[in-house]
Design brief:
This protein is an alpha/beta fold. It has a single domain (2-189), classed as Rossmann fold (3-Layer(aba) Sandwich). The chain has helices at 2-24, 49-59, 89-95, 99-115, 135-144, 160-168, 181-189; strands at residues 39-44, 64-66, 80-85, 120-124, 148-152, 172-175. It has a six-stranded parallel sheet with strand order 2-1-3-4-5-6, with helices on both faces. Strand 4, helix 5 and strand 5 form a beta-alpha-beta unit. Helix 1 (2-24) crosses helix 2 (49-59) and helix 5 runs parallel beside helix 6 (160-168). The longest helix is centred in the N-terminal third of the chain and has 23 residues, at 2-24. Residues 9-27 have low confidence and may be disordered.
Length: 190
């Protein structure tokens, strides 16, 4: 688990630092869409992608905390819920839960956020690896309940998130690579 976090940090720094200034000029966050801090970042499917989004938030100095297995009571005082969808059997195994249990947890978290009128931002950075199969149930759940979707292009190659965006009227922002999500996140919160 620690090794995975260190590898994510190294990868993030290696690709983010050289692109930071150039990417800030290309992030087309939709005008008028803003999210408030503090934010709670949680997984929807237990992929390790949530850790990378957490590292991005930390690097951007967002007031955000990562709770991989967040529960509804952890929404107290939170102004934005960031869901990072993507299924991982390894992640579920490490958490000691079943896919059914994870789906129930995510549904309860979304329901609680909706009741408290906490907007949900979906950030999908897993590309094709976190699409189709068991991931798409989590992707669809997160997308259908989001106020805004931030997706790395590869994850939308088949138009999956575009279709959901059309259905829900939630804006969809596509970025070419993972580092480009950082300036987009910054614009959505600052």
């Amino acid at each position: 688990m620690r090794r995975e976090a260190v590898m994510c940090a190294i990868m993030l720094l290696a690709i983010a630092i050289p692109l930071a200034t150039a990417a800030q000029e290309t992030a087309p966050a939709v005008a008028g869409v803003k999210f408030a801090e503090p934010a709670l970042i949680s997984s929807a499917g237990q992929s390790a992608d949530v850790k990378m989004v957490g590292m991005m938030a930390k690097r951007l100095e967002l007031k955000a905390k990562v709770e991989i297995m967040a529960k509804p009571e952890q929404l107290e005082g939170i102004k934005t819920l960031i869901l990072v969808p993507g299924f991982s059997s390894k992640g579920l195994g490490a958490a000691g839960i079943s896919q059914k249990d994870e789906m129930a947890r995510v549904i309860a978290l979304i329901d609680a956020a909706n009741k408290k009128k906490i907007p949900i931002l979906m950030v999908h950075i897993g590309g094709t690896a976190r699409r189709q199969g068991q991931s798409d149930a989590f992707n669809e759940l997160a997308a259908k309940n989001s106020k805004y979707m931030l997706v790395v292009e590869q994850g939308n190659a088949d138009g999956f998130f575009s279709k959901l965006s059309s259905e829900t009227k939630a804006p969809l922002e596509l970025v070419k690579k993972i580092p480009e999500t950082m300036p987009s996140l910054q614009k959505l919160f600052k």
